[in-house]
């Protein structure tokens, strides 16, 4: 093949490749980056991350879902304790609580509630519980009723020993729910415990009670 024709052919292949790459490239990424470039002067990594997150939320509204708010709309969930009294009064720098700010108190409440809300999500979701018969806890314990976390530890006859709340959760996972028990430290077990305790807010502890 004459060299000129070969060169022309090679050049066309290159042009076609370039066009294919250009068409296939996700230009929204570059647009996001370019739009975010002016933010690099923002002070501190957190501000920058927050600004990028806000930008991403604006450009991807359909992908933003506040799962905590959604779960709270679906199910009544007890709020965590209000610790705002720690900000009043005489607490100064010398007092251990005096060093905390409104922001700290907000973070404690939000984080505690998030774990409880995650527990609610699992409690109401047979798949998350690993149920082989599509059963979730709320079918027998609507809103966490009849779980009596305040009565643990107690002697459970069906297990023949003194058990903790997590043992009864596992008993229900294995029996009515027909799933595989969770390890005590499994994030799902921790969230379920958090939710069940939270729903009994205000109930006095009375271990051993039947
Ligand atoms: C099909 C109905 C059913 C489902 C579904 C079910 N449970 Fe139960 N649960 C029971 C029954 C019945 C008991 C009482 C057992 C007993 O004390 O003899 C019980 C007891 C409990 C207790 C102890 C209550 C007490 O008074 O001490 C806890 C905690 C509990 N369940 C949590 C759960 C959790 C968490 C789930 C989901 C993983 C769940 N249950 C799913 C029927 C169910």
Features:
single chain, 210 residues, mainly alpha, Cytochrome Bc1 Complex, Chain D, domain 2, 2 domains, 3% strand, binds heme C
User: What's the level 1 CATH class of the largest domain?
Assistant: Mainly Alpha
Please tell me how large the radius of gyration is. Answer: 27 Å
Which molecules other than protein and nucleic acid are bound? heme C
Oligomerization category of the chains in this entry: single chain
Terminal residue distance: 93 Å
H/E element string?
HHHHHEEHH
Helix/strand/pairing category: mainly alpha
Form type: flat
List the helices and strands and how they pair.
Blueprint: H1 3-24, H2 27-37, H3 45-59, H4 67-74, H5 102-123, E1 154-156, E2 161-163, H6 165-174, H7 187-199
Antiparallel strand pairs: 1-2
Helix pairs in contact: 5-7
The structure holds heme C.
The site of heme C has 19 residues, from helix 6.
Question: What's this, in brief?
Answer:
The protein has helices spanning 3-24, 27-37, 45-59, 67-74, 102-123, 165-174, 187-199, and strands spanning 154-156, 161-163. The longest helix is centred in the first third of the chain and has 22 residues, at 3-24. Helices cover 48% and strands 3% of the residues.
Description:
This protein is mainly alpha-helical and 210 residues long. The chain has two domains: 1-64, no CATH class; 67-210, Cytochrome Bc1 Complex, Chain D, domain 2, CATH 1.10.760.10. It is 48% helix and 3% strand. The protein has helices at 3-24, 27-37, 45-59, 67-74, 102-123, 165-174, 187-199; strands spanning 154-156, 161-163. Strands 1-2 form a two-stranded antiparallel ribbon. β1 and β2 (161-163) form a beta hairpin. It is flat. The N and C termini lie far apart (93 Å). The relative contact order is 0.09. Heme C (HEC) binds next to α6.
């Amino acid at each position: 093949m004459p060299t000129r024709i070969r060169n022309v052919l090679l050049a066309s292949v290159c042009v076609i490749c370039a066009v294919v790459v250009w068409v296939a490239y996700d230009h929204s990424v570059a647009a996001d980056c370019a739009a975010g470039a002016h933010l690099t002067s923002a002070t501190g990594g957190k501000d920058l991350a927050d600004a990028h997150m806000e930008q991403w939320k604006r450009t991807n509204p359909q992908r933003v879902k506040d799962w905590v708010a959604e779960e709270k709309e679906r199910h009544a969930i007890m709020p965590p304790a209000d610790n705002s009294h720690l900000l009043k009064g005489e607490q100064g720098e010398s007092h251990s609580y005096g060093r905390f700010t409104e922001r700290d108190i907000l973070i404690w409440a939000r984080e505690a509630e998030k774990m409880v809300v995650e527990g609610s999500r699992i409690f109401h979701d047979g798949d998350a519980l690993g149920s082989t018969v599509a059963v979730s806890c709320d079918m027998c314990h609507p809103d966490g009723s009849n779980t009596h976390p305040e009565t643990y530890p107690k002697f459970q006859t069906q297990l023949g020993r003194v058990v903790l709340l997590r043992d009864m959760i596992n008993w229900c996972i294995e029996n009515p729910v027909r799933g595989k028990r969770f390890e005590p430290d499994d994030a799902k077990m921790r969230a379920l415990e958090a939710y069940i305790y939270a729903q009994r807010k205000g109930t006095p502890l009375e271990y051993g009670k039947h």
